[in-house]
Amino acid sequence: MDQRFRTYIPPVTSLRSDWHVVDATGQVLGRLATEVARRLRGKHKVVFTPHLDCGDHVIVINAEKVVLTGRKETGKVYYWHTQYPGGLKSRTFAQMRAERPERVLRLAVWGMLPKNRLGRKLLTKLKVYAGPDHPHAGQQPKPLALVTRRN
């Protein structure tokens, strides 16, 4: 086989992971989750390979200050089932943000990752905090500036 037509797969030892910190203040939930999922997956890198973990660690601070467009503040509903008869539960976005603001962003990012072992591994590289403080200063995360386009 000719050498120039071979697919390049980077060696696992050459893959390195950076740390990024994102401030979610005033960011639209879906657009923020899209960029975070892209960074976790590694699609922003030249050596992106779909079946390898070549993404970065992402720290999201101020998750309680994320916003939604339109009337989704009260209209968006999260559902889950307890696996017991009559166990369908629901919460609106406003209730979820008041109770556990980290979970809102984690669910949005999880919806954009692959549903397999790799996706579960990528989700462990996401750290979400409701307030401005995080315990990952030792990793020297680089601030990641995201463009806000709100009308």
Topology:
Layout: E1 19-23, H1 29-41, E2 57-61, H2 72-75, E3 77-81, E4 88-92, H3 93-99, H4 101-110, H5 117-123, E5 126-128, E6 142-143
Parallel strand pairs: 1-2, 1-6, 2-5
Antiparallel strand pairs: 3-4
Helix pairs in contact: 1-4, 3-4
What do you see in this structure?
Strand 1 (19-23), helix 1 (29-41) and strand 2 (57-61) form a beta-alpha-beta unit. It is globular and about 60 Å long. The mean pLDDT is 93. The protein contains 5 helices and 6 strands. The strands form 2 sheets. Strands 5-2-1-6 form a 4-stranded parallel β-sheet, covered by helices on one side. It has a single domain (17-143), classed as Alpha-Beta Complex (Ribosomal Protein L13p, Chain: A), CATH 3.90.1180.10. The chain has 151 residues and is an alpha/beta fold.
CATH topology: Ribosomal Protein L13p, Chain: A
According to CATH, what is the class? Alpha Beta
Tally the structural domains.
1
Ends distance = 54 Å
Strand order of the largest sheet: 5-2-1-6
How many helical elements? Answer: 5
Helix fraction bin = 25-40%
By DSSP, the count of extended strands is 6
Q: Low-confidence stretches at least 5 residues in length (pLDDT < 50)?
A: none
Which percent range describes the beta-strand content? 15-25%
The CATH architecture classification is: Alpha-Beta Complex
Using the alpha-carbon principal axes, give the shape. Answer: globular
In terms of structural class, how would the helical and strand content be classed? Answer: alpha/beta
The whole-angstrom Rg is 18 Å
CATH superfamily: Ribosomal protein L13
Biggest β-sheet description: 4 strands, parallel
